[in-house]
Amino acid sequence: MKRLIPLTAAALFCVSFPAFSGETPSPEGAEQYFVNIKDGDVISGPVHIIFGLKGMGVAPAGVEKENTGHHHVLIDRPLLGEGEDGAEEFEYSIPADENHLHFGKGQTETVIDLAPGEHTLQLVLGDWAHVPHNPPVMTEQITITVK
Predict the structure, then answer these.
(1) Whose CA is closest to 130, among 105, 98, 110, 112?
(2) Is residue 34 very low, low, confident or very high in pLDDT (cuts 50, 70, 90)?
(3) Burial class of residue 4 in the structure, from the number of CB atoms within 10 Å of its CB (0-12 exposed, 13-18 middle, 19+ buried)
(4) Predicted structure pTM score
(5) What average pLDDT does the segment 82-87 reach?
(6) Three-state secondary-structure class, residue 57
(7) Distance (Å, whole) CA 57 – CA 71
(8) What's the DSSP call for residue 89?
(9) pLDDT tens readout for residues 91-100
(10) What's the rounded Cα separation, in Å, for the pair 39 and 145?
């Protein structure tokens, strides 16, 4: 029983943590962009993507430093903020799965294997805890076709 109380407290902390960590401010004018691809591009796979960022710096996940964040690529999913959870989606950490790629080591480019066909991509900057800033720093969603 004595072990159960600390474990329960730790679990509650982990569950509540993302709810109050979504308030990391972003500076006015901060902008994220795709450097080497644009909406409508037809690309041979694998897809090389270079991430651009203006008005902020890049820092690895876990490093809490003002005006910094790290990149996430959202693939083939609704525009961030327009998913099932709507605007509430911004209050929680970006999930890590095949539709949400994290670059928490501070990477500024990647190569992604995408199946031939049409795909949507969006860049979203996450704070030290993988939560979008307030206001969010992100690109418009683009559509590319992989040959």
Answers:
(1) 105
(2) very high
(3) exposed
(4) 0.80
(5) 57
(6) strand
(7) 11
(8) G
(9) 678 989 999 9
(10) 9
